[in-house]
User: What shape does this take?
Amino acid sequence: MTMETQEAMPSETEVQRGNEAMPSEKEALARLMGLAVFGERVAARTYNLCAKLEPRHRDLLRRFAQMEGQHALWFKQASEANGVTPDKEFAEQELGYLLEQVDAYFEAGDFDALLVVQGFIVESLAIATYAPYLEVAEKYPGTKEVFQRALDEEHYHVDWVIRCLRLRWFDDDEGFLALTRRVNVQGIDCIGGSLMNIASSLDRIGLSGADSAGAMMDGYTELLERVGIDRRPATRNVVSLFMPLMRKYRSQRRAEVAHA
Amino acid sequence: MPSAAMAQSAGAHADRRAEARALLWAMLDAVEGHTVARYAAAAPELLTPGKKAARDAVAWRAAGTSLAGTPLETAVDSLLAAATGDGSLTDALLLQGLVLEQLGVTIYRTFGDGRLSDDGSDVATLAGAASEEVSALAAERLCAEMPNADARFDAFAERTDAMFVRLDALGEALDTAFSGPFGLHFEDVMGEFMADLLPACTDGLGLQRREVIVHLTHALMG
Assistant: This one.
């Protein structure tokens, strides 16, 4: 752990005195880094599965998978350099539902659904959290460079996924809308739910869970629009899926505060 | 199922729908009454002929209905209390003219689409058109009153926060009352509402879409 980070960490007593609903800064960082490291590994695996289903794009998708794997390694090293062990148990708990969805699409040979869940939903979560993280990254030496580079590469992946989906669905907007509705139900429940579950950790390190949730909702809606879905149905679909997640989050926060 | 039992079940469903319709009109009547009173006090130019006609039509359709003693009563009262704000012109333009009118556009369109009786659908069409007209007028007036877009966003964020919180609380009562009879859930209505509200904020008020959405998530996540 660097000196800077040691000074930033609260003492155990301070943690005990704090609001029990909120993780300590170190716990928060461990959860966030856990989700980042293991989420990137899942992303690498998903792009590899996409490559198996679509030989025409195999080389590029494998390259994407390598890039995601590289992000995972960078994040793990940067995390350890700051004395933080990525919380694997938390990440596995969050990512289990996503893995089930990914495996089901792969088994069904559903390349488009895999692209939407990875290239749009998962990448939207990454972008909605990595971008604001850069504002506080100076507190954790060595992390800014790797998150900036990862963020740039996630944008590159998303841009390619948009072009790919536009070409595959250029004459069938209704079909694409039906595809996203189908994928969104489980995908947003899972990834949006994970965002709600890290909201208090984001708050703890000086970011805002609500800002990231808003950014993810808006970012994902924009991606749907860029493929060709009208703004109105895109907004309606994404907001209606986030509403129960936000309500559940608020109820849990109230219960935690009441319990504390 | 024997035909007599089926008829009984269908009759019970029809009764629940009729009760839900009555509650819906009572709620809309409360909101329209509040809105018109606020315009009369703080923004008379929003009391257009179309709005007056819509208010009368809703009151006529709601005659004999009441929210008293229902779970909706407290939630609607709470929302309207938040919608009163400080009684200023700015609050009338933002809370009634923008938020409540856009909510009206959404509700009248959603429920007017085959979920109401024929005369109810006619009233919903009339009232929805009036809400759209008034919302556009309110946006124009707000832009004239506050030429700076940042100032408009600050006012929007500060003044609508409590309303969005109360609106979400109203959702639970709405689901209890309407999800069974109408097969419609609050999150679906909110999806429609945001799809209506966002262009009103971006195109009408010149606000940044991302800022509006983030403001909403802050209000809803608490």
About this structure: The helical segments of chain B are 3-42, 49-62, 71-84, 89-112, 118-145, 149-182, 186-204, 209-221. Residues 3-42 of chain B form the longest helix (40 residues). The mean pLDDT of chain B is 91.
